[in-house]
Amino acid sequence: AQWLNCRLYEKAPVLLKNKHDIVPLNTYYRDCIAAVALGDVPGNNFHRQLQAYGHVDTYVLPKDVKDSVADDLLKKLKDYDRVIVSIHNTSINAQIYFGLSPQVIRFTELMGEMKGDILVVFGNPYVLGRLEGIAGYDAVVEAFEDTWWPQVHTAQKLFGAGAFQGELPVSVEPGFSLGSGMPSKDEQRLRFALPDAAGLDA
């Protein structure tokens, strides 16, 4: 079952935008990279997977973060070469704004205006339509589910351990139509996989 889940989610993440070919990230030039998880906890799986490929400073903000705390982090992030913003713990319910808080929307917008590097959404694709400032990001990834395998595969592909191949299954206004998605370069870096995928006994 684990192997099947791994295979099912491997091709799912969608790279919707990749300005200047920012993805895959290049760690050989020692870029200073930060990752900010909105709505998740310290030590989350996505951040751990990112840190397997390079030095990544990680930060987390709760959904109800105070503006003053968010603004202090925004100032700190100006010193980084690359910033990955990920959105977690959303909802499929449109009536509650897909679980997005005003604070998360605000931070995403300000980050896009200030230093929009990479935005990753672990949730319903329609979340993209409720976010402000997406146009300011160089790269946008729709990863669908906020679970183990989507986080593993997305982190790996951001660093070139595998290529993005997914396509958006719905249209999301503004700007993303059905079938949207672009491939990224596979840098042939080592990736995490189950023994079955290599023909070994688990």
**Average pLDDT level:** 89
Question: Number of helical segments?
Answer: 5
| Rg, alpha carbons | 16 Å
Topology, number of strands:
6
Topology:
Layout: H1 2-10, E1 14-18, E2 33-38, H2 45-51, E3 56-61, H3 67-77, E4 82-87, H4 102-115, E5 118-121, E6 139-142, H5 148-158
Parallel strand pairs: 2-3, 2-4, 4-5, 5-6
Antiparallel strand pairs: 1-6
How would you describe this structure in keywords?
202 residues, alpha/beta, 6-stranded mixed beta sheet
Could you characterize the architecture of this molecule?
The chain is of the alpha/beta class and 202 residues long. The chain is 26% helix and 15% strand. It contains five helices and six strands. The protein has helices at residues 2-10, 45-51, 67-77, 102-115, 148-158; strands at 14-18, 33-38, 56-61, 82-87, 118-121, 139-142. Strand 2 (33-38), helix 2 (45-51) and strand 3 form a beta-alpha-beta unit. Helix 2 (45-51) runs parallel beside helix 5. It is globular.
Would you kindly provide a brief summary of this structure?
This protein is of the alpha/beta class and 202 residues long.
